[in-house]
């Protein structure tokens, strides 16, 4: 099936941690498609662990974009643990607001990039959130991706390398609702 001309024709479906058994393989397959040229990297190969880690959280929330029956992208995350806002180490002074949503992953199939799918998924994921803030990590080797998040209201507040084999990421923070 040929993709639609824009993200407008996509169906965005919402899922929670109880849906993980149903959507787990879809997330893994989409990630593998999006990172096909980087799957020799051990960090990328551990993606199923990240799906299980995030998907096992009671507050896990995921949106998947479908063109008909074909999944073409997803975004997911979960509320941060109160009192453990790790990103605060990067902000001085830290915001008074504290309830944080951790935006963990965004992945779009290569044939659907540059059509507004990422923004549509991001806004669907953030819509109606109870948290005050949202935090995410962007590989600092991808400045265009960072600029895209900045255009949605995020700002870089620092850099972090959460795992020894992970890239160094830009730590990005935004107030909710997104602008």
UniProtKB/TrEMBL annotation:
<feature type="domain" description="N-acetyltransferase">
    <location>
        <begin position="10"/>
        <end position="177"/>
    </location>
</feature>
<dbReference type="GO" id="GO:0016747">
    <property type="term" value="F:acyltransferase activity, transferring groups other than amino-acyl groups"/>
</dbReference>
<protein>
    <submittedName>
        <fullName>Putative acetyltransferase</fullName>
    </submittedName>
</protein>
<dbReference type="InterPro" id="IPR000182">
    <property type="entry name" value="GNAT_dom"/>
</dbReference>
<dbReference type="InterPro" id="IPR016181">
    <property type="entry name" value="Acyl_CoA_acyltransferase"/>
</dbReference>
<keyword id="KW-0808">Transferase</keyword>
<dbReference type="Pfam" id="PF00583">
    <property type="entry name" value="Acetyltransf_1"/>
</dbReference>
């Amino acid at each position: 099936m040929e993709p639609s001309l824009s993200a407008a024709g996509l169906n965005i479906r919402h899922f929670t941690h109880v849906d993980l058994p149903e959507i787990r393989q879809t997330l893994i397959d989409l990630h593998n498609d999006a990172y096909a040229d980087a799957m020799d990297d051990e960090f990328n190969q551990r993606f199923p662990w990240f799906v299980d880690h995030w998907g096992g959280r009671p507050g896990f929330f995921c949106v998947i974009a479908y063109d008909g029956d074909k999944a073409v992208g997803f975004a997911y995350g979960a509320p941060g643990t109160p009192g453990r806002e790790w990103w605060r180490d990067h902000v001085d002074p830290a915001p008074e607001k504290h309830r944080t949503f951790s935006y963990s992953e965004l992945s779009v199939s290569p044939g659907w990039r540059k059509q507004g799918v990422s923004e549509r998924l991001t806004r669907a994921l953030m819509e109606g959130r109870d948290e005050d803030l949202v935090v995410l990590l962007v590989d600092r080797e991808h400045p265009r991706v960072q600029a895209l998040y900045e255009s949605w209201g995020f700002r870089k507040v620092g850099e972090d390398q959460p795992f020894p084999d992970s890239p160094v990421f830009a730590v990005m923070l935004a107030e909710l609702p997104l602008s």
